[in-house]
Amino acid sequence: MDAEAAADSANDSWIGVQRVKTGSTVFLDFDGCLNHRKHVATGGYPKMPFAPECIERLNRLIASTDAKIVISSTWRFGKTIEELQELLASHGAVCHVVGVTPTHVERTLVQAYTRGQGITFYLTDHPTTTYVVLDDDDDMEGHEAHFVRTSMETGLTDANVEEAAAILRRY
After folding, report:
1. Among 4, 21, 100, 153, who pairs with 76 as Cys (CB 3.0-4.6 Å)?
2. 8 Å CB contact between 52 and 92
């Protein structure tokens, strides 16, 4: 095996029988991904802001891809990366938060911008092509090929996890 093949092999993880490159990034929204309408309506929120089944699905995606998390949710406002990491961990998420998408204030823009534009700003400073966006909003211009749309009705589903892993395998 040549040096390049050995390096590629060292940077691969397995999901099922498919290889997924490590160093992957998940851009994560909270509402509509880690919680859903039924969870909120049955009193889970705010004392338990995340639905346990959605956290379990996120954990499965992270375990199978070794992806890192970048928070794109509005929950990032006023919180440090460490606080967001602790929030997720305190509800059972086994993941590593490495960043947040910038706010319009941090980018010195007068107006707010779309979630997709925030992801573009983040990727400008932290380039990668191996990423997936999990969100229940569809304002993802420029990221459609990396986008998995979740729903506030269901939160993150098994099908969403499979789709996200497939996107990470593709890039």
Report:
1. 100
2. yes
Report residues of the chain scoring pLDDT below 50. Answer: 1-21
Asked, as a colleague might, if the bond just before 127 is cis with ω within 30 of 0, I would say no
- At how many degrees (to 10) do helices 158-170 and 52-65 cross? 20
User: First CA to last CA across the chain, in angstroms?
Assistant: 23
42 Cα distance to chain centroid: 25
pTM of the model: 0.82
As a whole number of angstroms, the longest Cα–Cα distance in the chain is: 57
pLDDT digits (tens, 9 = 90+) for 83-117: 999 999 999 999 999 999 997 656 555 566 789 99
Distance CA 49, CA 40 (A): 8
Distance CA(117)–CA(102), nearest Å, equals 10
Q: Residue 28 and residue 38: Cα distance in Å, rounded?
A: 20
The half-sphere exposure of 156 on its side-chain side, counting CA atoms within 13 A, is: 29
What are the angstrom distances between the C-alpha of 107 and each of 27, 28, 111, 144, 159?
18, 20, 10, 23, 35
